[in-house]
Amino acid sequence: MSFNTVNDLSNEHQVVFKRLQALIKPADELEKGTGGLSEIKEFSCFLEKEIMLHFDIEEKALFPVLGRMIGTDNGPIFVMLTEHEDLTPRFRELIELSKNLTSSDLDSRKRAVKLTRYIITNLYNHAQKEDQILFPYALNALEPEQQAEVDSA
């Protein structure tokens, strides 16, 4: 049986890594007031439409099944959920901020840059942990019935 959900989540990370890397220069430009506005706004849409859904799939499909095996009070699932809880409000703030963000609003620009840089660093590190620790574990440890449960959630 193929394990599509975990593989799909891992493949999505490859897109995320590229998007985060491509966001470094626009964040610098936005800070200087020389550009980057459209890229930050577009990234905010990506957060809202793609990353929030990705987190939701992990939290509703993968984490509960793995959590029954290894627990959620500490260890990898606890760390991933804690990171989701840390990142999600920042996603939402950047999404809202981006709706009315202009190059002339210095305070909003500064906040958008700070949020963007935080997200670049922490979302990258989060996805790396999932790719290097959690997903390989899931692919090796889950029985076919558990895999099917994840895939059907």
Provide a descriptive summary of the structure in words.
The chain has 153 residues and is mostly helical. Helix content is 87%, strand content 0%. It has five helices and no strands. The chain has helices at 4-32, 37-70, 75-99, 106-141, 144-152. Helix 1 (4-32) packs antiparallel against helix 4 (106-141). The protein is elongated and about 55 Å long. The mean pLDDT is 95.
Helix content: over 70%
Gyration radius over CA: 17 Å
Strand residues, percent: under 5%
Instruction: Return residue spans where pLDDT drops below 50 for at least 5 consecutive residues.
Output: none
Global geometry: elongated
Q: Can you summarize the main beta sheet?
A: none
> Care to count the β-strands?
0
Number of helices: 5
Straight-line distance between termini:
16 Å
* SSE string, helices as H and strands as E: HHHHH
Q: What is the typical, i.e. mean, pLDDT?
A: 95
Q: Tell me the structural class.
A: mainly alpha
Based on the model shown, name its key terms.
single chain; about 150 residues; mainly alpha; 5 helices
Quick description:
Helices cover 87% and strands 0% of the residues. With 153 residues, it is mainly α. The two termini are 16 Å apart.
